[in-house]
Specification:
Blueprint: H1 3-13, H2 28-35, E1 48-52, H3 59-66, E2 70-75, H4 78-87, E3 92-95, E4 107-112, H5 124-133, E5 135-146, E6 152-158, E7 161-167, H6 170-179, E8 182-189, E9 196-203
Parallel strand pairs: 1-2, 1-4, 2-3, 4-5
Antiparallel strand pairs: 5-9, 6-7, 8-9
Helix pairs in contact: 5-6
Keywords: Methyltransferase, S-adenosyl-L-methionine, Transferase
Organism: Prosthecobacter fusiformis
GO biological process, one term: methylation
């Protein structure tokens, strides 16, 4: 599937993530773990965060705002962005495709929770280099992937709509993170035995332990 087709799928089902049926704690504990690695605020400068693939729930945006970040959101789905702006009118949301979008600045924290894996497989390496390159020294990226050993792509059904997933595989992802100047601080199969994995990686420059 192309990014445009993925956007069309999410346009049709966007209200689910902003409705009462969706579990708003999804991913929050993992983000709190990642935030413990983030460098302290610079003097007289606010820390900046990007929610890449922000969707419509606003839960990551709310967490980051509560932690004192200036937050931006990004999503390829026009309906997701419309709902996100409705929920947080004071936040800057970008309607764009992460495959081609250029980050307007560097960030101290970037979340790509359940988002990169919807991009075409051939774009994954470039996206990861882009996000890692968009971190300030000591900045942190959290992202999810399919926890497989080798590349794979497939199209599944979600709420009656087709949805594409792809992964480069764990060995390749670790290579890319290192080549992009980042260090893997944590990786976990957080929904085992499901093959849902998340990475916490930090831009070289400062080291922070939990």
């Amino acid at each position: 599937m192309t990014s445009r087709q993925t956007a069309e799928t999410y346009d049709k089902i966007a209200t689910f993530w902003s409705g009462e049926e969706f579990c708003r704690t999804n991913g929050i504990a993992q983000h709190r773990r990642a935030l413990r690695f983030v460098a302290g605020a610079k003097e007289e400068m606010a820390r900046r965060a990007l929610d890449a693939g922000c969707g419509s729930s606003g839960r990551m945006v709310e967490l980051l705002l509560a932690e004192g970040f200036e937050v931006e959101g990004l999503d390829v789905s026009a309906e997701m962005v419309r709902l996100a702006r409705e929920r947080h009118p004071g936040v800057m949301f970008h309607l764009a495709d992460i495959c081609t979008w250029e980050l307007p600045q560097r960030y101290d924290f970037i979340s790509a929770w359940d988002s990169i894996w919807h991009a075409p497989l051939a774009e994954h390496e470039g996206i990861l280099h882009k996000l890692c390159g968009g971190l300030n020294p000591g900045g942190v990226l959290i992202f999810t992937c399919g926890g497989l050993d080798a590349p794979e792509e497939r199209c599944n059904d979600l709420m009656g709509e087709p949805l594409y997933h792809a992964t480069l595989g764990l060995p390749r992802l670790l290579e890319i993170v290192a080549r992009a100047g980042c260090i893997c601080r944590h990786l976990e199969y957080d929904q085992h035995p499901e093959l849902h994995m998340y990475f916490i990686v930090q831009k070289s420059g400062e080291c922070h332990s939990e």
